[in-house]
């Protein structure tokens, strides 16, 4: 560093500067960089008078406001149900980001993902920082199918309820690029192609256990076999499925009985044996003794019907499984239902 003195011709004050000298090859002379004034020369004493030191910036406390009502509630539920732990074990550091995205989708519905940055700046959430659109795209792309299955396996392991609800819904779409968008039975009555979403949740806690996106032209009745295979893969040892009549078919009944599953499924009233059972037990359905006030005054009766397992033609003895358990006089289970009771002959 070199000091340079320069006198102002109007005021006569000589100023002192510090600068870095260098050699200019084009002009072939010394020049200076980063010149900074450090003071002036006192005309009486001839000494350098340094500039007055600048005052340090006064730190002013800043206040910020974040919305935390709904996110605090959702965060507490995630911690209480083990959801946050499962996300951390499967997705590591990305678990908190995924939880924040889930909170945004719940709290800001139906806002698009492009609004996540603004939401993150004004709300308290587990990740605690803003996530750019590019980072969100990278986050979604980094989730593998193996991680999804590990997460489902962890949620199934935590399931505490005795019964699991299984149902599907349809999501309409204008997209022409998504492979699974197909024309099918739209449950909302919208004239658009759709993607089907199958969901299983714990009846006691209401927590979702697993889901599966399906082509829009897949019907409910064809999903039960794949559901059984998926949950056996996730480590479910005992399932008690509750389904509506959209899943009723002989094939599904056979599949659940063959897998030794307990289930409760609605039957179509157009079936012959259902019609006959209604006729036989009509007087009980109309009786006050079978009415319960805990479920909108629903009348319940119970009956039994034999079940014969389909057998393939083969050489040698065959195994036939039938239900021989007599129906109790009164039960709290909805009717009609199947009870699993196998005997071999």
Q: Main beta sheet: strand number and arrangement?
A: 5 strands, mixed
Fraction in helix: 25-40%
Compressed to H and E, one letter per element, the order equals EEEEHHHHHHEEEHEHEHHEE
Backbone shape: elongated
- Give the name of the CATH architecture of the largest domain: 2-Layer Sandwich
Structural class: alpha+beta
CATH class of the largest domain: Alpha Beta
CATH topology of the largest domain: Nucleotidyltransferase, domain 5
CATH superfamily of the largest domain: Ribonuclease H-like superfamily/Ribonuclease H
Mean pLDDT: 81
Question: Explain this structure to me?
Answer:
The protein is elongated. β2 (14-24) and β3 (29-41) form a beta hairpin. The chain folds into 4 domains: 2-48, no CATH class; 66-143, no CATH class; 161-266, 2-Layer Sandwich (Nucleotidyltransferase, domain 5), CATH 3.30.420.10; 273-345, no CATH class. The chain has helices spanning 69-80, 83-91, 94-107, 116-122, 133-142, 145-158, 224-233, 250-258, 272-280, 282-285; strands at 2-7, 14-24, 29-41, 48-50, 164-172, 194-202, 208-215, 240-243, 262-265, 291-292, 298-299. It is an alpha+beta fold. 28% of the residues lie in helices and 21% in strands. The chain is built from 10 helices and 11 strands. The strands form 3 sheets. The protein has a 5-stranded mixed β-sheet with strand order 7-6-5-8-9. A 4-stranded antiparallel β-sheet has the order 1-2-3-4, with no helix packed on it. It has a two-stranded antiparallel ribbon with strand order 10-11. α2 packs across α3 and α2 packs antiparallel against α6. The longest helix is centred in the first third of the chain and has 14 residues, at 94-107. The model is unreliable at 314-345 (pLDDT under 50).
